[in-house]
Amino acid sequence: MARLRCKDIMASVCAVLLATVILPVRCAKASAVVIELGGGFGEFSVANRGEAISLNSAVAVQQLVNGEWVHVPVTNLYLREACRAVRPPRCRELGPDEEIKAVRWTGNFCSSQCPGPCRLDGSAPLGTYQFAVTSCDGKETFVSPEFRKNN
Amino acid sequence: MAITVVPGSVLMEVTQRPAVATPVVDGDNMAFLCQQGITISGRCKINGGLGDNPEGWTLGLIQLQWIETNWGSYRGQSNNDGSCFLQRARPPARAAKGCRDTLEVGEIFVNNAPDLNRTVATAGTPFPIAMAAQFSDEPRDYYSLTHLNSLTSKTNFLREVQLEFHFCTILTLKDPTGNFRHLKHLLWNVHWQAKFHPTDYAHIAADWIITPDAMGSTANVSNAGNAYDGGPREPRFTAIATDPSAPNCNEVAGNAFSAPNTEESRVWHDFDVRI
User: Fold this and answer.
1) What sign results for the dihedral spanned by CA atoms B202, B30, A73, A39?
2) Domain A28-149, CATH among 2.60.20, 2.60.40, 2.40.128, 1.10.10
3) N or C end of chain A: which has fewer CB within 10 A?
């Protein structure tokens, strides 16, 4: 019994040691992509502090409603540094230490970033928001700090 | 007793009429914007008896686009620089079919006013239940100020654009099993047509002469009609009103924007805008 208990303790110690070794690595990987806000409304940049990663080009917008982050149907908002005639590819590779300073979110649903046609459009309601970017395989999601939309 | 609409309780009205703005230069583009969007409101009351559960009954708005005119013509500075014509409203750029106007593909109700654009009844709410739906819309489009003519390798400059977007908006009541009962509908539209001329061909950021078309009452106007009882009856509307696979208007317009039908000429040419 004593031996078993010792074994159990050893296993626990090993687990803790392993966890202390592995977890920071996992955390570091999980937080490798950082979304930072700029000074003006809707400005944001996405930086990769870790290994190369493929990100979904589409940027999601979430609103804080009754204490929960709710999807907002903002379309045409992408990880892109400039407005071009062609739609960005579905995935965007971000190398180590690479950073994208994205064209800002206008605050609108459809005309959200670049000049483009909209038949249904409008301004998203006032409130607290955050941006969310997912890895292209959908396994990881990175969110920005929250920000206010006041008009 | 089944859940029913209270007679005389249905109202649908345009509470803010749309107004188009004169086209304006926005960066490298000519922007066709609304000075004021349209706002449409609807309401009704539903009634039921003991044992009737109102949970899931939804009053909302469906919007369909059934007409699109969308072309732009370009000319070089001199005759030998050529001319171009971009057509976004004809196949293959755009299918000859209506579309449903939602922000995201596959949605049925308009969804650009999360707190206002529908009422969903909840269990236990006493009858009669007052329901309301409201939304605003500001359609817009853009044309690039310049287009490179591949036949002459010369920059051609935006010369004229005509846009016409016609919509049908339906106030509808959906029951929890997914059946829609259209209560009212109305038609509205926005038009732009103008000619353009750069004041400095070497610097397109300089002022442009923008001359709205003065022909009759069809250019640079917006209209909104009265609401009629029930839903539209024409197949072009009924076929797409609640079909989950109906084309999405923003997506259709985006595809045509990215890949318009393009005609080019080595000289200045008056293109047939009907094609």
Assistant:
1) positive
2) 2.60.40
3) N
Out of A75, A109, A118, the one facing B139 most closely (by C-beta) is A118
CB contact under 8 A, B103 and A110: yes
**pLDDT tens for each residue of A73-124:** 999 999 999 998 788 999 999 999 999 999 999 999 999 999 999 999 999 9
Residues of chain B with pLDDT under 70: 1, 215-218
> Nearest CA of chain A to the CA of B3: how many Å?
31
**Max Cα-Cα span within chain B:** 80
Phi, psi (rounded to 5 degrees) for B208: -115, 145
Taking residues A50-57, what's their average pLDDT?
A: 95
Entry pTM: 0.89
Contact: B140, A121; criterion CB under 8 Å: yes
Candidates A99, A50, A108, A64; CA nearest to A79 is A99
Distance of CA B252 to the CA centre of its chain: 11
Would you call B139 and A120 a contact, using CB atoms and an 8 Å cutoff? yes
A contacts of B114 (beta carbons < 8 Å): 63, 72, 125
What's the number of CA atoms in the CB half-sphere (13 Å) around residue B55? 4
Q: What's the gap in Å between the CA of A4 and the closest CA on chain B?
A: 57
- Summarize the confidence of residues A124-133 as an average pLDDT: 96
- Greatest Cα-to-Cα distance within chain A, rounded to the nearest angstrom: 74
Q: What is the DSSP letter of B145?
A: S
Distances in whole angstroms, Cα of residue B203 to Cα of each of A118, B144, B199: 28, 14, 8
Contacts of A73 in chain B (CB under 8 A): 103-104, 107, 111-112
Measured in angstroms, the CA of A45 and the nearest CA of chain B are apart by 22
Q: Show the tokens assigned to B183.
A: 């209560």
Q: Which of B103, B139, B165 sits opposite A75 (nearest CB)?
A: B103
**Alpha-carbon span B77 to B72, nearest angstrom:** 16
Q: Please list, residue by residue across B78-93, b when 16 or more beta carbons sit within 10 angstroms of its beta carbon and e when fewer do.
A: eeebbbbbbbbbbeeb
Predicted local distance difference test score (pLDDT) of residue A139: 94
Residues of A with CB under 8 A from a CB of B: 63, 72-76, 83, 85-87, 109-111, 115-122, 125
Q: Name, in order, each residue with C-beta under 8 angstroms of B178's C-beta and a sequence gap of 6 or more.
A: none
Of residues A86, A110, A116, nearest to B142 (C-beta): A116
